[in-house]
Amino acid sequence: MFFYIFLIVVASQRLIEVLIAKRNEKWMKSKGAKEYGKRHYRLMVAIHFLFFVSLIMESILGRSDLNSDWPLLVAVFFIVQLCRVWVIMALGRFWNTKIIVLKDAEVVAKGPYKFIKHPNYLIVTIELIIIPLIFNAYWTLFIFAILNQLILAIRIPLEEEVLNKQTNYEDELTSKRRFIPLIRKSR
């Protein structure tokens, strides 16, 4: 029963995020923003959808019980969700699931962005580890942890390239110290 309640909560959260993203996308595009990475975005959506299909199949067919450490894992999951809200609030109208960039916009460097470059991707990565662990879905954990890193290896460089060209991203990054070190390119 917990499995289904948990899935409903996560699915509801994702639906709310899609609605926020659509609203923000409409606003940004009305201001002249452009979207990048449409091809890989479809793949990313497919990976996230298949993650839940895999989780359901592995949990139902494998009849896995909850992990013995499930209370701790659920607590970590909820802390990560608070961090997700922090990210969305920090970016405000600029938060989106797509790469949509408004030329010459000031890069957001508040909230979690004061500390790391891509907190939203870190949050998703942690979720793709924690959720399968809660339900002992180790195949889902293994497969989608790898797929997530592969899609991020495409997405993050593209996002940073576009931000560097269209905004003050590089200036913002080099002017602030962060917890996660920045490897600077020599010019």
Automatic annotation (TrEMBL):
Question: Per the UniProt record, which residue ranges are transmembrane?
Answer: 6-22, 43-61, 73-95, 121-147
- What subcellular compartments does it reside in? Membrane
What domain of life does the native source organism fall in? Bacteria
Gene Ontology BP term (one): methylation
Q: Does the keyword Isomerase apply?
A: no
One GO MF annotation is:
methyltransferase activity
Per UniProt, the keywords (alphabetical) are:
Membrane, Methyltransferase, Transferase, Transmembrane, Transmembrane helix
Q: How does it sit in the membrane?
A: Multi-pass membrane protein
Which portions of this protein are annotated as coiled-coil regions? none
**Predominant location:** membrane
Signal as UniProt keyword: no
Which InterPro entries does the protein's record reference?
ICMT_MeTrfase (IPR007269), Metal_cation-efflux_comp (IPR052527)
Q: What is this protein called?
A: Methyltransferase
Which organism does this sequence originate in? Rossellomorea pakistanensis
